[in-house]
Write a structure and sequence with these properties.
globular, mainly alpha, about 150 residues
Length: about 150
């Protein structure tokens, strides 16, 4: 049961990264471009939405990043790549494997919390998101094969 849940979570986080790299995360600017909504504003804070906004710039996501790893947040924000795909590639090259895993888990968790808030009215505090991220990362470390 735990392995099936682990595979589902890994699949979902990979899906978020893939959709981010293809500029197909359903942010409000993408939805407006596809005539699926009339506004390109964030459903949580009202600011202009883009691929960067919900994952790094929205108040909720900034709070999560400060709680999770402020140094990683600074590295992530330091990349000035305008396109998500190049942004991800630049981070793959500049981060350690553990840092990139944390980045992936955090991006996925922020996206999940945002969607729950906007579409279901279920708001998760930044602390609750951080707790989930830490617990998930600890579980990944437990199943990681040890290197001798």
């Amino acid at each position: 049961m735990e392995e099936a849940m682990e595979n589902q979570c890994t699949s979902e986080s990979t899906n978020v990264l893939w959709r981010l790299s293809k500029h197909s995360l359903p942010t409000e600017d993408v939805r407006a471009h596809r005539h699926m909504t009339t506004s390109s504003r964030c459903g949580l804070c009202g600011m202009s939405d883009s691929w960067k906004h919900p994952l790094m710039q929205c108040t909720m996501s900034r709070c999560v990043w400060v709680l999770v790893d402020e140094d990683l947040a600074h590295k992530m924000l330091a990349s000035k790549e305008p396109k998500a795909k190049q942004w991800l590639f630049s981070l793959i090259e500049s981060l350690t494997q553990d840092q990139f895993a944390l980045l992936s888990i955090t991006l996925w968790s922020i996206w999940y919390a945002r969607r729950k808030a906007i579409h279901e009215g279920i708001f998760q505090s930044p602390q609750a998101t951080q707790t989930f991220i830490n617990r998930y990362r600890d579980e990944l470390n437990m199943i990681r094969p040890t290197v001798r």
